Amino acid sequence: MESLNCNSCGAPLEVPDSANYVKCNHCGQQLVVRRSESATFTEAVDRLAETTEALSEQVEELSRHNELAELDRRWELERENFTFSDKHGHRHLPDEKNSMIGGIVTVVFGCLWTIIAVGMMANAPNFGLFPIVKIVFPIFGVLFVVFGATAAMRNFQMAKDYKAAYRRYQTERERIIREQS
Ligand SMILES: [Zn+2]
User: Fold this and answer.
1) 2-50 in CATH: which number?
2) pLDDT (tens digit, 9 = 90+) per residue, 43-63?
């Protein structure tokens, strides 16, 4: 027999060496007998349940934490698909306003080029290479307009897609955090 104390009321208990569970004669508390190398003591069963519950809550929180980290990691990768480099090597995300301004600038430049080129070529002579230059020179401006407008529309769409993807990510993140609390 071992001499222990009830963990709940402190009453002395005589416990068989092999017993893992014991009931306190004094207060009726169900007790678990804990044997470590240095000491033997009792622990109230509902306290044990509390410990288990706290532990499972910790595990749950950890898994939510992982879920959040996993979501963030996936978002980093997804955002990478939207990122582009400028001529200085700086990384940018698509922006609706910037792509619109870029498109307008390119189209205006292309129009001006075409108008000026047509004006300059109007009085050019019609021999040698002049007939070809008359056509090719203004066409540069037209190409500028076409490519500028196409690029602007593509960038604008990409900016919209990015915004939608970002909103999805934020919604998902809020959902995980909300479940946590
Ligand atoms: Zn007791």
Assistant:
1) 2.20.28
2) 888 877 888 888 888 888 888
Q: What is the pLDDT of residue 111?
A: 95
How is residue 158 written in tokens? 């990409």
Q: What does the alpha-carbon distance between residue 166 and residue 71 come to, in Å, rounded to a whole number? A: 12
Question: What does each C-alpha distance from 2 to 32, 42, 45, 112 come to in angstroms?
Answer: 14, 11, 19, 101
Residue 3 Cα to ligand 1 midpoint, Å, equals: 14
Helix (H) or strand (E) holding 24: none
CB-based contact 121:137 (threshold 8 Å): yes
Task: Determine the distance separating the centroid of ligand 1 and the alpha carbon of 56, expressed in angstroms.
Answer: 27
Which residue ranges make up each domain of the chain?
2-50, 83-180
**Cα(22) to centroid(ligand 1), Å:** 10
For residue 28, the CA-to-ligand 1 centroid distance in Å is: 6
CA–centroid distance, residue 32 to ligand 1 (Å) = 12
